[in-house]
Amino acid sequence: MNETNETKMEPNYIFDDVPRISPLITVSCCLAMSVLYVSSLYIWNNKHNRDHPATVKRRFLSVTVVMLITPIFVYKFSSKELLEKIPFYELLGLRWHGLLMAIVIPYLLTMLLFLGPLCVELQNDTMKVFMDINFWKSSFKNILWIRNHIMAPLSEEFVFRACMMPLILQSFSPVTAVFITPLFFGVAHVHHIVERLSMGMEFTTALIISISQLTYTTLFGFYSAYLFLRTGHFVAPFLVHAFCNHMGLPDIQELWQQHLWKRIILIVCYFVGFIAWIFVLPIATQPTLYANNIFWPY
Questions:
Q1: Own/partner pairs for 197-206, CB < 8 Å, 24+ apart?
Q2: Residues near 77 by Cβ (< 8 Å), separated by ≥ 6?
Q3: Which residues neighbour 87 within 8 Å (Cβ) at sequence distance 6 or greater?
Q4: For residues 166 and 83, is the Cβ–Cβ distance under 8 A?
Q5: Beta carbons within 10 angstroms of residue 272's beta carbon
Q6: Which of 52, 97, 189, 191 is catalytic?
Q7: N or C: fewer beta carbons within 10 Å in the chain?
Q8: pLDDT tens profile 136-162
């Protein structure tokens, strides 16, 4: 009787019941996918910079092809037992169960993290523009907006989360996986140093900017990986990534342009948002909310 109760209380976690794969194989696959993604951006013989429409369109095509190739790594190197337990599309975080929660809750959670910057936009009336239909019409005609808010988050989250995570989980625990895959994501952004140097930027300046970018992309990668594993949905990190690309790094200088009392209130909003986010994060990402027993134990 006791043995039966203990069995029922064990975490219902699919990756616990499948054979382990050598870390060398899974890490090598992730490295290959990362190299493939970055390399696809430079296969074109193009004299234009990264923001030129011709460059952007060609890169759209490249990353789309990469998105079609990377699932093959997951299917080829995953254990047969795992593929028999769960539909392949669900293994990539494409699930119906808990979808609405995965769309809404992580997005609101991330807005809480950006409470300070959002309050700055609110008091500057910047947010009114989002109520203007013409803003959205012009945005969807702007190829750079589409790149930053749709194509980049879509392709990066699919490759670096949806395709890498299922492989890494077959060699490491979920907590360890959260700290492994973002390293590939962060390093993959270092390639921008090449573009900056080609534009005539000094090496030291380009290096400092690239190191800074490596730092915050890796930190975001931790958060995004955590959201993917806890919700079990690709849509959660995708929407959060798009939102973060819109917000960018907080503009601290804008705070000092405010009157004293406004500045104090806004600084408080920064701290309150961040502290509240830390406390709410584990609650808002409970796997049970998303019917997720795939990527994280209940």
A1: 199/49
A2: 21, 25, 26, 29, 167
A3: none
A4: no
A5: 14
A6: 189
A7: N
A8: 889 889 999 999 999 999 999 999 999
Taking CA atoms, 190 is separated from 97, 185, 291, in Å, by: 36, 10, 36
Side-chain half-sphere exposure of 121, counting CA atoms within 13 A: 16
CA 95 to each of CA 36, 47, 102, 228: distance values in angstroms, whole numbers, following the listed order: 26, 41, 10, 12
Q: Of 90, 121, 149, 156, which is the active-site residue?
A: 156
pLDDT block averages, 10 residues each, the chain of length 298: 42 79 94 91 79 91 96 95 93 95 97 92 76 85 95 96 95 92 72 64 69 80 95 97 90 73 87 96 96 87
- By residue count, the chain amounts to 298
Place of tokens 């019917």: 291
Active site residue 189: yes
* Helix (H) / strand (E) containing 193: helix 192-198
Catalytic site includes residue 48: no
What is the residue type of 205?
T
196-221, pLDDT tens digit by residue? 666 667 767 766 766 777 788 888 99
Which residues make Cβ contacts (< 8 Å) with residue 211, sequence separation at least 6? none
